[in-house]
Amino acid sequence: MFFKRKNINPEFEQKAEQISHESEGANTVERLQSVEISNNTQKVDVNEEKEKTVNEARKVLEHELSIKHFFHKQLLETLDLGLLSSLEKERA
């Protein structure tokens, strides 16, 4: 009742096996590429975070520096006025 399958076209089976092996190889290449892409996006995200922290730190330092310059300027003006007033007292 059951018939044994004859190997009618062995070339077709060989081609089918080659194609399946090539597709598996292509899948591994695609997987590697997707892993590389995900690694690159992670690196970009890490670099963007570092850049943001550097920019925030730079803004804080610039703000502190502007405050220091303001108070230094105020101090110099005060010292100049103090020096002028002491000179006027000596002249009088």
Automatic annotation (TrEMBL):
Instruction: Report the superkingdom from the record.
Output: Bacteria
List the protein's name.
CpaF family protein
Question: Which organism was this protein described from?
Answer: Parabacteroides distasonis
Phylogenetic placement of the source organism: Bacteria, Pseudomonadati, Bacteroidota, Bacteroidia, Bacteroidales
